[in-house]
Design brief:
This protein is of the alpha+beta class and 470 residues long. The protein is built from 18 helices and 10 strands. α5 runs parallel beside α7 and α14 runs antiparallel to α15.
Length: 470
């Protein structure tokens, strides 16, 4: 199995509503030697207002994302999908990818009528190099050079971390350069801390992570909350029967005797109240988990000895009655959280609101094989209202002339609602929000930066002029 390292540059950080402008990926062999690379850019979608901060960070300006020689967003996603399928099965990694880049890729696939779960199907696995870097620094301090920010705290920003460890990161926030930096840091961990690198493969899918958690009597989960690292020594405590990816570990810094006979209400307190004796683990988010016996050096600095942790774990291993009550507690918590929760009115946020029927799946396979006129007929035949609307949007962006006038007008209004929406609480960047941010940034910009900011301001003005006339 090879590796796919990738990165995205985007119009902003609202993963359900922003879009990918650049996608870079490098496929490597098992020794992290490059085999092939992919570098794609695309045009801006009509309904997306780029956030000025995103454009400043990436240096991508209107002259790039308005370039009509670039592929459309749909065409770029088609190429990404084809290449990821060609490289499958692989272990797919990025830097802060699980919570950001992968969500954007999944959204892009969803919005272009493809299977959104490409990174964890076809035998693919996934992991996040940022999580590994943080774990490596926490469990084996000193192996990596970690720079400090202006507040004197460790910073794991790739554009600072990679150079501190010897990488010449001259084009930071350019997708392929960031991919190269990510591979560099991955190789550093692979060579210096092979046990942490190998742990990636043991938790790179929900199934594998669940097996690791349930079958390892004493394990350590390395996590970071709000910039602070924590290493919890745990044993399996139970899983949510209603949410397959929600597994728990009992924190062995606590004595399990106080919890063995606890009822469901008591276990809910143990899960939800500080200090937590039982901790949720997202098995589908590639958690960093290592068997306690594989990191003996870590236990030289802990308050309790490894023998004490193992003794405490022994009281819970195989205790199915306790694990069942924990499962009941988790189910109660998730039911209470779901009660009264309303589905988002935005299709972008309905990606997890159900799976396609086999009939609709077959229709979308035909969609990809057909010409645009036939695609319109296929879209109109879809039973799932989400995908029917997404299909109309795709056709509007790619071949608006084949839509009925009523649909073109409706799509025009959809674009204008995104650009000019007066509600400051809508979960995307509107033109007004973008201009306010740009104004604040401009007050602190240098004269050199102001040239770029002026090009963004001109773009916003042209955008307003174009759509206010329709």
């Amino acid at each position: 199995m090879g590796y796919v390292f990738y990165d995205t540059e985007t119009t902003g950080v609202e993963t359900s509503f922003d879009q990918i402008l650049q996608f870079g990926a490098i496929y490597t062999d098992d020794d992290l030697n490059e085999v092939e690379r992919l570098d794609l850019r695309c045009q801006l979608l009509p309904n997306v207002v780029p956030h000025p901060k995103a454009l400043i960070i990436t240096g991508v300006g209107p002259e790039t994302f308005l370039n009509e020689e670039l592929p459309s967003h749909y065409e770029m996603v088609e190429t990404i999908r084809s290449k990821l399928i060609e490289w499958s099965p692989s272990l797919i990694l990025g830097y802060n990818s699980i919570d950001f880049d992968e969500v954007l890729v999944r959204q892009a696939l969803y919005k272009t009528l493809h299977d959104p779960y490409l990174t964890n199907t076809l035998g693919n696995l996934r992991a996040d190099v940022l999580s590994l870097v943080r774990a490596a620094n926490s469990l084996a301090p000193g192996v990596l050079e970690v720079p400090l920010n202006e507040k004197g705290r460790p910073t794991f920003k790739l554009d600072q971390l990679a150079p501190a460890n010897g990488f010449e990161h001259t084009n930071a926030h350019e997708a392929l350069s960031d991919v190269e930096a990510t591979i560099f840091m991955a190789r550093k961990i692979k060579e210096s801390l092979p046990h942490i690198w190998e742990s990636t493969k043991q938790t790179a899918s929900r199934q594998l992570a669940t097996e690791m958690i349930t079958e390892t009597p004493c394990f350590v989960q390395s996590v970071t909350y709000f910039g602070t690292p924590y290493n919890y020594v745990m044993t399996f405590a139970g899983n949510n029967p209603k949410i397959p990816y929600q597994v728990t570990g009992f924190d062995l810094d606590n004595n399990p005797e106080y919890y063995l006979d606890a009822d469901v209400d008591g276990l809910i307190d143990a899960i939800t109240k500080q200090p937590k004796a039982i901790r949720k683990i997202r098995s589908n988010a590639s958690p960093v988990i290592l068997a306690a016996d594989d990191i003996l050096e870590f236990f030289e600095t802990t308050a309790e000895s490894l023998e004490t942790y193992k003794e405490r774990a022994g009281a819970l291993v195989g205790n199915h009655a306790f694990q069942s009550r924990v499962g009941d507690a988790l189910a109660r918590i998730s039911d209470d959280a779901a009660e009264g929760r309303e589905e988002s009115p935005y299709i972008e946020e309905q990606i997890y609101s159900g799976f396609l029927t086999p009939q609709d799946k077959a229709r979308l396979v035909e969609f990809r094989k057909s010409d645009w006129e036939s695609r319109l007929t296929i879209v109109n035949s879809l039973a799932d209202p989400r995908y029917k609307e997404l299909g109309i949007r795709v056709i509007y962006c790619e071949r608006p002339e084949i839509l009925e006038e009523v649909d073109r007008n409706r799509m025009d209004n959809w674009v204008k609602q995104h650009i000019f929406n007066p509600d400051p609480k809508v979960p995307w960047t509107t033109l007004n929000k973008a201009r306010l941010e740009l104004e604040a940034i401009s007050k602190m910009a240098s004269s050199e930066q102001q040239v770029f900011l002026n090009s963004i301001s001109d773009f916003y003005g042209n955008l307003e002029g174009k759509w206010s006339k329709l």
